[in-house]
Design goal:
Strand order of the largest sheet: 7-6-8-9-10-11-12
Helix content: 40-55%
Structural class: alpha/beta
CATH architecture of the largest domain: 3-Layer(aba) Sandwich
CATH superfamily of the largest domain: Response regulator
Radius of gyration: 24 Å
CATH topology of the largest domain: Rossmann fold
Shape: elongated
């Protein structure tokens, strides 16, 4: 009798172990993370995402497909992940724009991108209507111009330098044009595909505009030093902080790593807590920073209002 009971206990234990193992296998959650092309911003957002997931949902496995070569490569990855994963994170503006034309079948989270409404990824950032939500570095251009006008007195005209082939360039152009029209500022915009085109644009307009704005595209940001050299005494401001570190006067930007952490919160809200996408708004940095290059301020002889300096992050280089 004892032997039979022991055998039954062993068998029951084996069955329970199998059930627990199976349940664990079924419940195991995996997400994919990918972006197309090289991007320091995407890396920073991914860093914040990874750190956040470790804190909030360490059991979620993440597969990274970094710096894919093309949108065709992204399409292949998305097709596979749609069958294998419970969710996916697609970074950069080119990815958000692609998702707008190719609605995903599983919960998808965007980040490291410009205004997702203008990119076509969502129609309403406050209540996303499809399978897409996430975060955006987008800040209203009107807000940025309030600062620009405060540090560049009597701003009557601007030149906006945009990167060729980057989807975020269309967002920057559209909003900047609209704000300039509203404020009565003459708008000039040039889309550039090379450093030669950038320098030519700056040389053409530097004596005709109050300020030059560097768009939020690596295709122009990477050549900030050349822009500064060509601009001479014409103030150069930026929609990102990278150019400010390279010599631009100032830039009002979101914190990419912080946005990555906020992105992890959205992933957990949807995949772990079961919230509907429409109840998880696309998040923006609630406390963006204005960066000021102190050496450039001194070189241009510009007086920055104390209220701005007090809240700004100062770069001395």
């Amino acid at each position: 009798m004892v032997k039979k009971c022991f055998s039954k206990c062993v068998a029951l234990t084996a069955v329970m172990t199998l059930l627990v193992f199976s349940a664990g296998a079924v419940c195991a959650m995996e997400i994919g993370v990918a972006w197309v092309g090289k991007s320091g911003m995407a890396k920073r957002v991914a860093k914040g995402l990874q750190e956040g997931m470790v804190q909030l949902a360490p059991d979620v496995k993440m597969e990274f497909q970094k710096e894919l070569g093309s949108l065709a490569d992204l399409e292949k990855i998305v097709s596979r992940w749609s069958k294998e994963k419970q969710g996916m994170v697609i970074l950069r503006s080119n990815g958000a724009k692609w998702l707008g034309k190719n609605p995903p079948q599983i919960p998808t989270f965007i980040g490291g991108c410009n205004n997702p409404e203008q990119l076509g990824a969502v129609k309403n950032m406050k209540a996303p209507e499809g399978n897409i939500t996430g975060v955006t570095y987008y800040l209203p251009v009107a807000t940025q111009f309030e600062i620009f006008q405060a540090i560049v007195p009597d701003m009557a005209s601007v030149l906006l330098l945009l990167g060729h082939g980057n989807p975020s360039a269309d967002v920057d152009r559209t909003e900047t044009e609209a704000v300039c029209k509203k404020l009565g500022i003459a708008y000039n915009g040039v889309v550039c595909a090379s450093v030669g085109e950038i320098e030519a644009a700056v040389n053409k307009y530097k004596s005709k505009v109050s300020a030059i704005i560097i768009g939020n595209q690596a295709e122009v940001m990477d050549y900030t030093q050349q822009i500064m050299a060509a601009a001479e005494k014409t103030p150069v401001v930026s929609y990102s902080n990278k150019p400010v570190k390279m010599g631009a006067l100032g830039g009002f930007v979101a914190d990419d790593v912080k946005l990555g952490g906020m992105l992890s919160e959205s992933v957990v809200e949807v995949l772990k807590k079961g919230k509907a996408i429409k109840d998880v708004p696309v998040k923006v940095d609630p406390d963006p920073k204005f960066f000021v290059n102190v050496k450039t301020v001194e070189m241009l002889g510009i007086e920055i209002p104390y209220t701005i300096l007090e809240a700004a992050s100062l770069i001395d280089g």
